[in-house]
Amino acid sequence: MERIREVIVVEGRYDKNTVSQVVDATVVTLGGFAVFNDREKLAFLRRLAEKRGLILLTDSDGAGFLLRNYLKGALPKDNVKQAYIPDVKGKERRKRKGGKEGKLGVEGMSPAVLMEALRRCGATFEGEAPPERRENLTKADLFALGLSGGKGSAEKRRTLLKRLGLPEHLTANGMLEALNLLFSREELEAVLAEM
Questions:
Q1: CA dihedral (23, 87, 83, 67) positive or negative
Q2: I need a labelling partner for 133 at 20 to 30 A (CA). Which of 53, 124, 157, 181 fits?
């Protein structure tokens, strides 16, 4: 089992159990929306972020993005990585019926999908060289590539997100962050040319 340096932050205990079966890492649960009123947990997460770095791994539904966006504003940005799981229709085995949006959460993802999400976000795996840094894409690049601000840009963004296996709830800023983890400008242009 591969060991990850950063602390992985998930929504609940079932997510923690699933992730703990895939990688050797410290996994902390938010307890869902309880984190909004838990100053001690937030202070604890800040300390962990500064000491070890955090990886946010929430579900790809609206609730997961609400938690993710709250934490983005509450934690030191430079010490937090964003791991995204794809939108997959279905329900977890333990549940009688699926969630409101009908998507699988972290607990329903396969080990391969979770490993891919962790690798894509730039997780630091022990015994491996850290991912190399490259020049980031900008909002101006998204505009120039037709992914923001123009006619048909919303549809083009949805198509790209689906093709890349990224959640549909990503904002333009979230998409920019994810694209910077995954691609150089040239690689993104190649993907767009194939669409």
A1: negative
A2: 157
